[in-house]
């Protein structure tokens, strides 16, 4: 068994770190340590013939999204059972995937008690409900696709990886850091390592959450307070911390962070505002009005609180349910009177072992909705990403020596990948610039490859699984812990050393045994 501390060995932070002029080899993934892990992997699983089979735990928006891969590629993935306490979610799964009554459950526990009825489990419950079903599925021997964040405390994240998954390197747990699977994101990683930018000195990365999106999810909705989910840097931007760690050629040594909840607070409430938007005299002038947000034509989808599929195409009934929910439900509340406490803006500054730096801005008050943008400042040029998934204009480079502006084309298949564009009409899977599709495809195809190899009596199955497993072992947990460390910096008002932070989490884990 690999030592987790070995994987996470950190140089202590040092302001005297000497920068090297040549581009360093990545240490965040594909390291020798990881390869050793993949070589030791074996396939213990018994595979069922035909497509990869999966159970779905949590059949809300994300669970339905990944399940859709089974509709697009039924020869690759089949959904065989599902669990969700909501009757509408269960009937959607039964209807859509032809599940019999005894394959649909009100809770994940009775489903898991059925034993290993599928190759994989897709776990898309809410943030604080990830750990237990994931542990249970691991013990069954299922491969797991788990929504981010993997857990809501650093100790639970380390517990999940160290106690559960490192002991079985051929059993896959992929965390849904969907953006990692975007062709442009992978191309940036390659480009930095190709040396064309010279030495990377700084990354400036912005996540514009979108004003209506923020009000929906982080003021009125599921991610509004830490008690119910977690801090917004983790729930919204663990993707972005992960991306920065993935791109940078060396490890993060120190973080600092500032941010707060400036706007969605009672003292910001305009004079004359009511408790609910439908009763409000200043609603017309309010950017965050629930009436403007949800009532037809609306600017934000009410899918989180009204199940459109349950209306069977009856648009009038759907509108009526939306109006009723805005009148009486949590999504019709005045944004200045909700039980929210998460930051509406936050910056994170990161320093890396090779002297490079990165800054991340999470911002609620934007027109753009989650269209990330980044600038990569190297000693030979400046690379800009406009947030597009792929195409000829996603990446632009200005090269200092030639004084040329150029596009860096991003195809669907950066080296080593077998990406394919999502088929036209693949509704939900186009989310996150089709990253949802690319992630589901990567997960399912890794399992198919392992299965084919096992059926052919080959011994490469373990390493094909470990290829994805690497993303977890050495970098996904690391990215989560950097996000926790940044939040600790914000709360304590200090610079946090990542090495010391990870050591403290690991010693708490040791004490926990
Ligand atoms: N990867 C991404 O980019 C991304 C984007 C959005 C959300 N998320 C994450 O995905 C997860 C799910 O988000 P969502 O928007 O689909 O939420 P959702 O509320 O629509 O879905 C969660 C579902 O879990 C069900 N559930 C609750 N208790 C259960 C139980 N005991 N057994 C089985 N099911 C149970 C709920 O009824 C609900 O249908 C969250 O952790 C969220 O942070 C990730």
Automatic annotation (TrEMBL):
Ranges where the record places region Disordered: 15-40
- Residue ranges occupied by any Gfo/Idh/MocA-like oxidoreductase N-terminal domain in the UniProt entry: 54-163
Name the Pfam families on file.
Answer: GFO_IDH_MocA (PF01408)
Secretion signal span: none
Q: Which GO terms describe its molecular function?
A: nucleotide binding
Q: Which InterPro entries match?
A: Gfo/Idh/MocA-like_OxRdtase_N (IPR000683), Gfo/Idh/MocA_Oxidoreductases (IPR051450), NAD(P)-bd_dom_sf (IPR036291)
Which PANTHER family does the annotation name?
Answer: BILIVERDIN REDUCTASE A, BINDING ROSSMANN FOLD OXIDOREDUCTASE, PUTATIVE (AFU_ORTHOLOGUE AFUA_4G00560)-RELATED
Q: What is this protein called?
A: Gfo/Idh/MocA-like oxidoreductase N-terminal domain-containing protein
The record lists the organism as Macrostomum lignano
């Amino acid at each position: 068994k690999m030592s987790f501390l070995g994987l996470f060995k950190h140089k202590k932070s040092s302001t005297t770190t000497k920068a090297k002029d040549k581009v360093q080899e990545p240490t965040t993934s594909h390291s020798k340590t990881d390869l050793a892990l993949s070589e030791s992997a074996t396939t213990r699983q018994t595979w069922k013939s035909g497509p990869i089979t999966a159970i779905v735990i949590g059949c809300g928006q994300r669970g339905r999204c990944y399940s859709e891969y089974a509709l697009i590629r039924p020869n690759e993935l089949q959904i065989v059972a599902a669990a969700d306490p909501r009757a509408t979610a269960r009937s959607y799964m039964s209807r859509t995937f032809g599940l019999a009554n005894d394959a649909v459950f009100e809770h994940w526990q009775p489903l898991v008690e059925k034993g290993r009825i599928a190759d994989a489990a897709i776990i898309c419950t809410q943030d604080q409900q990830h750990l237990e079903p994931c542990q249970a599925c691991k013990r069954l021997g299922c491969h797991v696709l788990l929504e981010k964040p993997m857990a809501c405390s650093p100790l639970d994240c380390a517990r999940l990886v160290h106690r559960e998954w490192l002991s079985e390197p051929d059993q896959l747990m992929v965390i849904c850091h969907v953006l990692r699977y975007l062709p442009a994101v992978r191309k940036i990683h390659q480009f930095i390592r190709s040396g064309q930018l010279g030495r990377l000195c700084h990354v400036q990365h912005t996540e514009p959450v979108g004003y209506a999106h923020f009000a929906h999810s982080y003021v009125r909705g599921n991610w509004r307070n830490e008690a119910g989910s977690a801090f917004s840097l983790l729930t919204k931007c663990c993707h972005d911390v992960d991306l920065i760690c993935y791109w940078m050629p060396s490890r993060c040594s120190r973080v600092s962070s500032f941010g707060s909840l400036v706007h969605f607070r009672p003292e910001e409430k305009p004079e004359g505002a009511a408790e609910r938007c439908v009763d409000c005299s200043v609603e017309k002038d309010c950017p965050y009005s629930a009436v403007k947000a949800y009532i037809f034509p609306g600017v934000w989808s009410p899918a989180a609180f009204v199940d459109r599929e349950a209306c069977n195409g009856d648009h009038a009934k759907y509108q009526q349910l939306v109006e009723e929910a805005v009148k009486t439900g949590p999504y019709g509340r005045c944004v200045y009177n909700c039980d929210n406490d998460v930051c509406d803006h936050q910056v994170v500054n990161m320093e890396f072992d090779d002297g490079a730096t990165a800054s991340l801005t999470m911002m609620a008050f934007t027109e753009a909705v989650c269209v990330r943008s980044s600038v990569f400042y190297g000693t030979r040029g400046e690379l800009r990403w406009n947030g597009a998934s792929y195409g000829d204009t996603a990446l632009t480079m200005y090269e200092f020596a030639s004084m040329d502006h150029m596009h860096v084309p991003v195809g669907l298949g950066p080296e080593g990948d077998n990406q394919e564009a999502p088929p036209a009409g693949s509704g939900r899977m186009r989310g996150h610039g089709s990253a949802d599709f690319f992630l589901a495809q990567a997960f399912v195809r890794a399992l198919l490859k392992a299965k084919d190899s096992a059926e052919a009596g080959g011994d490469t199955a373990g390493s094909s699984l470990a290829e994805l497993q690497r993303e977890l072992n050495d970098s996904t947990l690391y990215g989560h812990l950097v996000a926790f460390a940044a939040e600790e910096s914000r709360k304590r008002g200090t610079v946090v050393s990542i090495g010391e932070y990870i050591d403290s989490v690991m010693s708490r884990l040791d004490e926990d045994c």
